[in-house]
């Protein structure tokens, strides 16, 4: 499954913070990194753990959100 990983710079925290929108029951942002690459690596690890834990608990995984982009050319 393909889940959304949102990575944004936080001036307050002086790092990149990660949000996993499909996992609404998890405190957000759920991880961070000093670099974009570190934040992405941490996000992938958290996502793997969330999926594993959800399945172990016998709960259904959230449906991945779909991003629809329509370009209009004038």
CATH class: Alpha Beta
CATH topology: Double Stranded RNA Binding Domain
CATH architecture designation: 2-Layer Sandwich
Number of helices: 1
Helix/strand/pairing category? alpha+beta
Query: Largest beta sheet, briefly?
Result: 3 strands, antiparallel
Question: Percent of residues in beta strands?
Answer: 15-25%
Give a short overview.
This protein is an alpha+beta fold and 74 residues long. 28% of the residues lie in helices and 18% in strands.
What would your notes on this structure say?
The protein is of the alpha+beta class and 74 residues long. The chain has 1 helix and 3 strands; from the N terminus they run E-E-E-H. The chain has one helix at residues 36-56, and strands at 6-10, 15-19, 31-33. A 3-stranded antiparallel β-sheet has the order 1-2-3, covered by helices on one side. Strand 1 and strand 2 (15-19) form a beta hairpin. The model has no long low-confidence stretch (mean pLDDT 92).
């Amino acid at each position: 499954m393909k889940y959304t990983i949102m990575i944004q710079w936080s001036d307050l925290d002086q790092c990149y913070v990660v949000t996993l929108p499909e996992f609404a029951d998890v405190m957000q942002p759920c991880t961070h990194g000093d670099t974009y690459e570190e934040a992405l690596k941490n996000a992938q690890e958290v996502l793997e753990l969330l999926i594993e834990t959800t399945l172990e608990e016998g709960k259904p995984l959230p449906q991945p959100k779909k991003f629809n982009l329509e370009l209009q050319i004038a």
